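Preliminary data (for renewal application), orotidine-5'-monophosphate complex.
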Amino acid sequence: MHHFSDRLNAAIQKKKTPALVGLDPRFDWLPADIVSNANKNHHTQAEIVAAAFEEFCLRIIDVVAPLVPAVKPQAAFFEEWGPAGCAALQRVILKAREAGLVVICDAKRGDIGSTAEAYARGYLAGENIDSAIWAADCLTVNPYLGSDTLEPFVNVAVERGAGIYVLVRTSNPGAGTFQDRKTEGTNLYECVAAAVEELAVKTKGAGNYGSIGAVVGATYPEELNQLRALMPHTPLLVPGYGSQGAGAGDVAGAFDKQGLGAIINSSRGINFAIRKAPYSEKFAPQEWEQAIEIATIDMIADLANHTPAGNLQ
Ligand SMILES: O=C(O)c1cc(=O)[nH]c(=O)n1[C@@H]1O[C@H](COP(=O)(O)O)[C@@H](O)[C@H]1O
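Predicted structure:
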């Protein structure tokens, strides 16, 4: 399907869940078997870490590909390790695409138009994975430089059937420092939301949603509900569930009646499920993949039981 949201919604309806698994590897938390494999076969620290991240994420993909529609590799954790880390990220993205998953590369890119064009062409492959070296379906984008800097991302997304998610109301505690600054009574995040909704309307697919989405944190449920109403054609990427303290009740307002309109991210809560109860009590450390599987199934059930995502079942 040559439209990002149509493709994402088809995947959500096929897997009957809006659960999005983030891929956020942290070396100190990796399973022992993965670290020993990497140490055995590699020499420099960067190569060891990159190889460990790659094996970890590829094995997570094997577990979650049958369960969820999409994954969100966090570029930062790979970029920290330079070329070796970036090569690992590229292979993780390709493996996820080959597994039939929609891939949102979380790199929060943003720059002036001519430079943004390079980011867009490098990351946004859309349905044809050969059309961009990073081969992602979608990219997170920082709008701080202004709406003109979003245009190159929009143009390439439309051309290639890809998507972007623009940061609108982020999940972090300090989100309001700038996002809540008011101009004539309107918060900055509401101004950005209006610009993003306009782009979503312009890029609508066969369904109700555009290829231009918004990131809205689950940790601000009131703003999430407000923005769902303000942005009826904008698909939402909702981080903050799990490790940042938000639960299914906080994200119920992100969806439309069919249970579409949003994907709900959990990274640490799934990647490192083995480290915390109840999974640390049910599984031995080497059973970390089983812990990921059950944690994902639990998240899917939590969303189905407490949000309109239950209408996807
Ligand atoms: O763009 C994002 O995905 C993002 C935006 C935001 O406002 N908050 C936020 O946590 N994220 C990302 O979502 C992921 C959340 O990870 P967990 O808190 O481990 O589930 C990280 O990769 C963050 O960078």
